[in-house]
User: Fold these one by one.
Assistant:
Number 1:
Amino acid sequence: MQHKSWIIIGTIYATLVQVCLTLGSISGDHKIVSLPGQPKVNFQQYGGYITIDERQHRALFYYFAEAETEPASKPLVLWLNGGPGCSSIGAGAFCEHGPFRPSGDILVRNDYSWNKEANMLYLESPAGVGFSFSANKSFYDSVNDELTAQDNLEFLQRWFTKFPEYKGRDLFITGESYAGHYVPQLAQLIIKQNVKFNLKGIAIGNPLLEFNIDFNSRAEFYWSHGLISDSTYESFTSICNYSQIRRQSTSRSLTPVCSGVIRQVSREISNSIDTYDVTLDVCLPSILSQAQVLNQLQDTEKIDVCVEDETDKYLNRKDVQQAFHARLVGVSNWTFCSDVIKYEMQNLEVPTIHVLGELAKSGIRVLVYSGDQDSVIPLTGTRTLVNGLAKELGLNTTVPYRAWFGGTQVAGWTQVYGNILSFATIRGAAHEAPFTQPKRSLVLFSSILAGRTMPESPSLTEH
Amino acid sequence: MQHKSWIIIGTIYATLVQVCLTLGSISGDHKIVSLPGQPKVNFQQYGGYITIDERQHRALFYYFAEAETEPASKPLVLWLNGGPGCSSIGAGAFCEHGPFRPSGDILVRNDYSWNKEANMLYLESPAGVGFSFSANKSFYDSVNDELTAQDNLEFLQRWFTKFPEYKGRDLFITGESYAGHYVPQLAQLIIKQNVKFNLKGIAIGNPLLEFNIDFNSRAEFYWSHGLISDSTYESFTSICNYSQIRRQSTSRSLTPVCSGVIRQVSREISNSIDTYDVTLDVCLPSILSQAQVLNQLQDTEKIDVCVEDETDKYLNRKDVQQAFHARLVGVSNWTFCSDVIKYEMQNLEVPTIHVLGELAKSGIRVLVYSGDQDSVIPLTGTRTLVNGLAKELGLNTTVPYRAWFGGTQVAGWTQVYGNILSFATIRGAAHEAPFTQPKRSLVLFSSILAGRTMPESPSLTEH
């Protein structure tokens, strides 16, 4: 019943959206007056659709938070989450480094918001993700990296028409996880097509760069962090080869022996472990949460492990969607990761590590960073890949592997090659690094923008 | 000047102590009325000296905290810290699982004190550690594992004379780090000499069991946790062999190349990392601490990383020493780790893993646990050792490697062999596990005492 009425509403919206898209080209109509429950702030926010393809009725939704202070002199940063198919507004803006985090009915200020350092542009991409859509649903059946990069470029070009004051601004493209594909591919397309953006650098966190090495390093990470036993580690690395597992399970050619090993791995790790952050607690179903609240002995957590649930509730509120100028088109709910897109999964196996090499050769600063508690795309594989790339490019180590500092404590480790290609870990951080280590992530972020190496020694005055 | 007067006072004390030791055999004279700054509690505390050797004027100091409730029906647990040469009262009682933790001038209640589950006996051992002493200082020149085990046994026998009501009580011997030598060796001696104690089990955390495997697993731990680079890891494992480094540096036969690698390892790890807990912040010198306090952005820490400093100050207060019935003999300060003992360092290389096997065969429950953030004696080496021992003994896996729960979250992983030999990790815990994970450590501790396997699924009501 409820479902049916949503379909009707969806259809009406689809029509309305089309009308709206043909309207105004000024940024005024996208201005967000105020998000429900937000504290008062001094910076401007915008949200709305940019049409990518008028004929196909395809439009991408963005959320733009101008810098807290002096936006005119600060760079423009595009942020993309991965998946493929997950929302940059849900994850990036509301769980990681946006100006606010949802807490019950209200939004609370994030003290380590990246818009302290830059004008932050969060994009739901490709169409079908979050509030972005294609009215022609056949688009969803064959989305791939190439289409995503093209649409993202188209978005940027049209967005600059709407916000011309940002056209010549220093531009950084950033993202994480599967954006290890999106980010370098978009940057590559900009260079290839000789688009006149002022692209200065890219930064990608816990990125998928090269399927085999990224996924093969999981077994070692599990074992060295105590998640699986000696004997299972042995089977996992001898009987199964992780890079084959994904391929084999797609083609349904997994051997029964290896299937058994995988079941054993899952059993040992346990369902109550967030493999995206092996040391963080997990968000519990409400009956368990209730027991927690009632219990006096429960530690208070600095990290809200249920922030995804809260974001989901917040972004599904009608008043919130209205404030954002967002609509649900062809779906009944806003979701963290799309359930309508059929992404070309073979694209996962396309290596992007060499694209980073091309970018570095073109003078684009490249930073690859790893939250070090992530077992899904572990630092060990990523570090090996960047190190190997530097060797291939003949780039000398310009900053030797060393600790970097966020304030007075070690915030991670870093190595720089040829003053252009950097690797950094963030200590105690998850797959979504700014979620669990917001302060350290902000230090890292501001270093990238400034083209500085990470702080070398403890600073008395905190960042 | 101050130093001189301490020597005089020390001499007077030495004489007094001797007199005291020949006095009363009742426990009353060791009863602690109240420790300075402590909150009101309902359990009894005792502190004092047990003479080990009248002729040599050698006496061991203990602190005994009876169980919070129903002490008469709860087991007796001896706790030993390692080093060799470090204090069980300073580390075990005041930083880890004692009833109180120092905080400025006062003591605050530890909600996860092990005396909730047992009568806890903390022993400063061998003589020369903490408040324990040998008036005949020549003892300090040749302390070794054999002497330590003998003295610890002598202590227990004489202590039972003083506290006869504990004689037949279920007894557990526990400890950590170098107590991976002390604990099994003491248990072995009890069995060998057929002493009539009711020894039920032993538990050792992050223990030194087998020099080569324990120390060789460091390189891998450093690398997999992002503390050293790919290239340094390669040099570390190919040019140097960690088990040789210790031997070679003792015999001053370290090759210059390997010395270089070690310097590189140290440089990359950084001085600001606590290798006993690679994710924990470090305690900062006062000038930096001051900056921290002044700074609004500083996160509040749940763990007081400066608790060792506070313990040092507390145990060096005269009123505290008086309340404890403790004296400084032959030293001017109480110290965390002894600077008078010359321990036989070759003993580090004596393997104790097979002693665990003997104990298990004698029906003594054996638990080996690892705080999983410790790079000094990493879980990877320890797990391999226990696994190997189980194979040697022909013990089948009775509990397969799986997560265990502290309340509603995964608290670590465990595996049990033959219902007698157990391995467990404590998630997010340091070398001194109960320091960083007090709640999880208490769950583990109560499981050992009860002879239960670790909780298998999340419990709604917290422990």
Number 2:
Amino acid sequence: MAINSGSDPMRFSASIKVVLKDGVLDPQGETIGRALKDLGFESIVSASSGRIFRLDIDAETEAQARKIAGEAASKLLANPVIERYEVEMAK
Amino acid sequence: MAINSGSDPMRFSASIKVVLKDGVLDPQGETIGRALKDLGFESIVSASSGRIFRLDIDAETEAQARKIAGEAASKLLANPVIERYEVEMAK
């Protein structure tokens, strides 16, 4: 039994950005780009869209929290066939 | 007429994060949090979700590109009643 078993974990906040992989069609982004042009935003050349998740995670270390966030992203939050994700830790 | 009129604009990339304001119910985030618990992620305390947009903008200066991104966010991308947005410039 490790000497620090039962130590209080810290709370970390992870931000997970999920976006379409390059080359995957993005009809939502294209629609937004067209809508912006129709609203008069001529200088906006292109638009793409994605999702962002914030997870509050109890863990011993930031590295452990980041690992948990990555597992959550690959198992539930992102579709690995068409999407890629980035994990950023806050604080 | 300004001496630099007709100068080539530069291309900027803006990332716009749209999240629910504090206190607004987030059923999608709650569902994700529950699903993560069901998958065995006991250490994930809470989850919230939002959207992220990337806009490529032609502008003379980064400040001008940021202004355009903010206007696009408030006019089309975010619902100011329940959402807030953050603009970040890349590069």
